Amino acid sequence: MVIALACGARAQPAWQTYHNVKYGFSVDIPAEPRITEGVTQAGVGPVPTLTGGIDLHERGGMVFTVADYSATTKSTDPDVVLEDLVKALVQKDGSVLDSEISIIVQGAPGRDIVAHTSRFQRRMRVIYLNRQLYGLIAVGPVGAGAPSEFDRFAKSLSFDRGP
Fold first, then answer.
1. I need a labelling partner for 53 at 20 to 30 A (CA). Which of 20, 65, 107, 122 fits?
2. Parent domain of 38
């Protein structure tokens, strides 16, 4: 190990599975996430949220988030929720939308999104299932792009219950 460090090699992160029973999902992540819960004001009213994030230092960071729309009585059509999310992303921090692809993950509609600002690039996968919006996000410096671990992170998302 000392030889690897002396040669400048980086230790690979120790991937672990984060499982949340309340929101019914699991995701693999390369470090212990910092978890926060709160309420976000959305177009449909207050929405409970869970967020977990890790700092990859100079390479950026990774975040998973869940917004629970089940308490709202307003319409939460999946396409409307997903399109509103993309609009909010671009408006909130002045991001430029590089690509948006409609996807289906385990029977649920979603989007794969790439966006950037002058300082960072962001890759996102968002899925809408059972009135819950799941987001997986990786952010990295513009020149470097989003962290390479994002593909493994995004593909690991699984749900405890189906659509």
1. 107
2. 14-159
Strand order in the sheet with 25-29: 16-20, 25-29, 158-159
Name the average pLDDT for the chain. Answer: 84
| Cα(141)–Cα(119) distance, integer angstroms | 6
Judge whether 100 lies within some domain: yes
What is the count of structural domains for the chain?
A: 1
CATH of the domain at 103: 3.40.1000.10
d(CA 48, CA 36): 11
Higher pLDDT: 41 or 1? It is 41
Burial class (CB in 10 A: 0-12, 13-18, 19+), 100: middle
Sheet strands (E) in 69-107:
96-105
Kindly state the greatest CA–CA separation across the chain. Answer: 60
Question: What's the pLDDT tens digit per position in 36-81?
Answer: 999 988 777 788 999 999 998 888 899 999 999 887 766 668 888 8
- Contact indicator for 145, 121 with CB cutoff of 8 Å: yes
**Phi, psi at 122, each rounded to 5°:** -130, 130
